[in-house]
Task: structure prediction
Amino acid sequence: MNFRRITTAILVLVCMAGIAESKEAEPVAPNVDLKTGAISVPENYTKWATLGTWAHAKTEGEPGSKEYHVVYTQPETIEYHQKHGQYPDGAVLVKELLNTETMMMTTGSAVSHATTLKGWFVLVRDTKGRYKNSKLWGDGWGWSLFNAPDSKKTVSTDYQENCLACHLPARDLAGPNVHEDDKWIYTLGYPVLRKK
Ligand code: HEC
Result:
């Protein structure tokens, strides 16, 4: 009896240690290599929720959109943001760049729809300052660009040079109560995130 109890206790301890260890060894998000911090496009992101779409108008006075940017995230990220007003550690934002075609349809004279995929911009929220030596991580996020169809190879090399300047205007668009790191994100385009 005693022996059985002791054996059970040892087993429980071993399991707990195992869980603690596997937790420790988890990457910030499934699309991040734990050791190097290399980011890829998450495999299942099209099954996630869409946060919003940016429609880029054609120039030269033509009607319709020339490109769509569709942003996806995990459903948990939406829930967390609605509750706490900020992005959780491990939140992944995937922005798809899509070509378009515009045609006359029964709903209107110039209706645009998405056609082929050009590439992806990916951001991973990092509240802990991981990968300090990587030029793809910093200011609270991991930053990466991919050209379709290669969803594994990051083509950007330095987020400070490749990304930050273009995301500066987001900081002015963000409200004063927004977390400093979240100010880099164009959250105004994602009404679904607003606090409930
Ligand atoms: C030419 C300017 C520009 C550059 C360069 C740029 N971004 Fe953006 N990014 C934007 C704008 C503006 C939006 C929102 C509107 C849109 O997509 O048209 C956006 C949106 C995003 C989004 C969706 C989340 C959000 O902030 O709304 C991701 C993800 C993203 N960018 C990642 C990146 C990464 C990673 C890099 C660098 C590799 C980068 N961007 C470089 C301008 C830029």
In short: The chain has a mean pLDDT of 92. Residues 54, 69, 71, 93, 95, 121-123, 143-145, 156, 159, 162-163, 166-167, 185-186, 189 surround heme C (CB under 6 Å). Residues 19 and 96 are 35 Å apart (CA to CA).
